[in-house]
């Protein structure tokens, strides 16, 4: 009944429905107007995303209003470090993103596809909050690598004529950008708010906003207190 907005990505997407997360905020923002549907997968890269996309988004079903594609943080894991099994080479990352976009364009020609670049990385913080042992004493990800993958994501958006959020650049424009990250990679509460605002602003530019979407049933302000059921006649 309500149109959908899908969120497709890695842990930064899966975690977006946590308390204060950007996905949860998006769902609250569009309450009564659109269903925000989470399809996030912790640890996934674009290679793995392509392995599951046909099951995650089968052919049946109505086209959503929009889908966000937010991969790259794991692809950019350094191949010779502790999270190297998640690494995808830069050129393959671009190829995989193109394939993901092509799938959605074929599946839902009218759906707005929004690409989000991987966020920046605080190299030092990655050592303070390790998810695995780091015997080399080196971070598993670096900001330099993240920015390279972000550029490839933007190149895909340009080639496909899609809107994109250059999260890697936009976040680093803030003097205290490291406070937007909880562990040097994932978003803090402040970072989630930042991403939410970026997504909302871009959706509005794509004509998806509170002003353009109708509520699915009469609002309480539209119900006649003297004859409540009249509002449901149509």
From TrEMBL:
SUPFAM superfamilies: SGNH hydrolase. Keywords: Hydrolase. One of its GO terms (molecular function) is hydrolase activity, acting on ester bonds. It comes from the Eukaryota. The keyword Cell inner membrane does not apply. Belongs to the 'GDSL' lipolytic enzyme family. This is SGNH hydrolase-type esterase domain-containing protein.
